[in-house]
Amino acid sequence: MTTNTETGTHGGRVLYGCMGLGGSWEPGPYGPQDIDAAEEAVRAALESGITVFDHADIYRHGKAEAVFGEVLARTPGLRERITLQTKCGIRLPGVDGGPALYDLRGAGIVRRVEESLERLRTDVIDVLLLHRPDPLADPDAIAAALMSLHSQGLVRAFGVSNMGAAQIGRLQARLDVPLVANQLEMSLHSRAWVEAGVLLNTPEGAGHGFPFGTLEHCLDHGVRLQAWGALAQGRFTGGQRTPAEHATAALLEDLARAKGTTPESVLLWWLTRHPAGIAPVVGTARPERIRACRDAALRAPDLTHEEWYELWTTARGVPLP
């Protein structure tokens, strides 16, 4: 398992998100071309210095994990070079004939982990995240399931996803091991995580639903923040829609040119420059776009205080209050 004392116990500066692997989102089988595409994406990530691979049991109805397991089987020694992270807790509509729901019942957590281990063709998951909060969940039952998985050697470490400080603290109080990660939507486009605190006591801030104090809680308790959607779905690197996005894209190009890197790396540096120690999750399946993030994975963020703010205010499209 990858260990890096500079960037946190589990992982590196950037993670590779495997949601795009495995073919279509239909529940049918995957084919040889899907395994080849997954292998190419994994190779691009490794060549870019990324060794943490983020999964979830629901990605492509399990096919993302399954094709990744095929890649591991094809590549002797690869498992020992990487950190495997997966998530559970969401049930897609139609599974077992039921509706879409969140399911953090203890027995369900154990079963989903066993299924992920089989698909990934490994005997241990390095980090397991609880994908979404389940309003009906019993935190004592969750903790019992997690500690059972840990004692059996099936999962090495645990974290959460899309949870606030109070939810993390309530679960942590019942666990004998620390929660090591919290994965949230964070990007230069999805800015509620930073603006909820800064825009406190302003009319604009009243519209933010991000749970106040979550960043500070994670920072103070050693919970590594991971940013899903970090590339903002290409809004600033080819998919601009608004005047603010066009202006931000132009600024990213200028900064990238001045620093000898790519706009994608500058975009991710905006996250990693924050003192919360954010680790972006790169979710594209395109090898060339993965490689464009190389400097974000291998170099410390090369952004000044002023450049960070210029990117933020340009993306906002309106001045700070």
Question: Which key features would you list for this structure?
Answer:
10 strands; 12 helices; 321 residues; alpha/beta; two-stranded antiparallel ribbon
The helical percent reads 25-40%
Write down the overall mean pLDDT. 93
Q: Beta fraction of the residues?
A: 5-15%
- Spans where pLDDT lies below 50 across 5 or more residues: 1-9
Q: Care to count the β-strands?
A: 10
Individual helix count: 12
Biggest sheet descriptor: 8 strands, parallel, barrel
Taken from the alpha-carbon principal axes, the silhouette is globular
- The gyration radius over C-alpha positions equals 19 Å
Structural class: alpha/beta
Task: Describe the structure in brief.
Helix content is 40%, strand content 14%. The chain has 12 helices and 10 strands.
Which helices and strands, and how do they pair?
Blueprint: E1 15-17, H1 32-47, E2 52-54, H2 63-74, E3 83-88, E4 90-91, E5 101-102, H3 106-120, E6 125-130, H4 139-151, E7 155-161, H5 165-172, E8 179-185, H6 192-198, H7 214-220, E9 224-228, H8 243-259, H9 263-272, E10 279-282, H10 287-291, H11 294-298, H12 305-316
Parallel strand pairs: 1-2, 1-10, 2-3, 3-6, 6-7, 7-8, 8-9, 9-10
Antiparallel strand pairs: 4-5
Helix pairs in contact: 1-2, 2-3, 3-4, 8-9, 8-12
